[in-house]
Write a structure and sequence with these properties.
Largest sheet: 4 strands, antiparallel
Radius of gyration: 17 Å
Number of domains: 2
Number of helices: 6
Strand content: 15-25%
Mean pLDDT: 93
CATH superfamily of the largest domain: 4'-phosphopantetheinyl transferase domain
CATH architecture of the largest domain: Alpha-Beta Complex
Strand order of the largest sheet: 6-9-8-7
């Protein structure tokens, strides 16, 4: 997990790593920032998988499928190692990626200090989560901590974004970071928060800026 600029600087010629399909998707994005985020995330997931497999990133092919149509979107996978779990995420100026020997999901969200949308929080959070948000000095960031946990579970198919997770998710900083056999690896930085959900221990490293 790290700032898009730091990942791109470390990768080098990022477009040489991606497939034509990925490049076409990136080029279709209207914002230069969105294009950079897409390219950086798709490069970073190759670097993560390459380190785990002992292979160079350029030798790995990322494909995506939702399982419902033939468009190249949805859960990512590797052609060369289909059993390997991989996941990627990007937010404005930030990217995250992960690889594991099993199902895994990652999410990153930008924290711009915005006020919490309590209507959204009430729709997706359980009562214990809401109580913790109400007591928190910065409820907006506290909500993001819970949101990235939820998103990481969505990536592995263990939750949805439409309703509260039942039983409620463990509250960041109060409860053990586990839920129904899933372990959360939380990470924060000035300007962003991220989380990995996996069955095994997965280390989420922060690139470029100090962790919080």
């Amino acid at each position: 997990m790290g700032p898009t600029a730091a990942v791109l600087a470390g990768v080098g010629e990022v477009r040489a790593l991606l497939t034509r399909t990925e490049l076409a998707r990136a080029d279709a994005l209207r914002s230069a920032g969105d294009r950079d985020d897409f390219l950086a995330a798709h490069a970073l997931v190759r670097l993560c998988a390459g380190r785990l497999l002992g292979r160079p990133a350029h030798s790995l092919t990322v494909v995506q499928s939702c399982g419902e149509c033939d468009r190249p979107h949805g859960r990512p996978g590797l052609v060369e190692a289909p059993a390997l779990g991989v996941s990627l995420s990007h937010a404005p100026g930030w990217v995250a990626a992960v690889a594991a020997h099993g199902p895994v999901g990652v999410d990153v969200e930008k924290d711009d200090g915005a006020e919490l949308d309590w209507r959204l929080a009430q729709r997706v959070c359980g009562e214990r989560e809401l109580a913790a948000l109400r007591a928190h000095a910065t409820p907006g960031r506290a909500f993001l901590r819970q949101w990235v946990r939820r998103e990481s579970l969505v990536k592995v198919g263990a939750a949805t974004l439409d309703e509260p997770v039942r039983p409620g998710l463990p509250v960041y900083g109060q409860d053990p970071p586990r839920w129904r056999g899933w372990t959360f690896q939380d990470r924060g930085a000035e300007g962003a928060v991220g989380c990995v959900a996996a069955r095994e221990h997965v280390q989420l490293r922060l690139l470029g800026r100090g962790a919080q």
